[in-house]
Amino acid sequence: MLKITLLKTTKDTAQTDRDVLMKPATSAEPIITKAFSFRLEIFKEPQAVAEAAATLLLQHISVNPKCVLLLPTGRTPLAMYAAMVERLQQKPLKLELVQSFNLDEFYGIPADHPGSYHTYMRNALFDHIAVPQANLHLLNGMAASPEAECAAYEAQIEAAGGIDLGVLGIGANGHIGFNEPGSEVTSRSHRVALQPGSRAANSYLFNDELESVPESALTVGIATIMEARQILLLATGPEKASALAALMHGAITPKLPASYLRLHHSVLILADEAAASEL
Ligand code: GLP
Question: What average pLDDT does range 151-180 have in this prediction?
Answer without folding.
Answer: 98
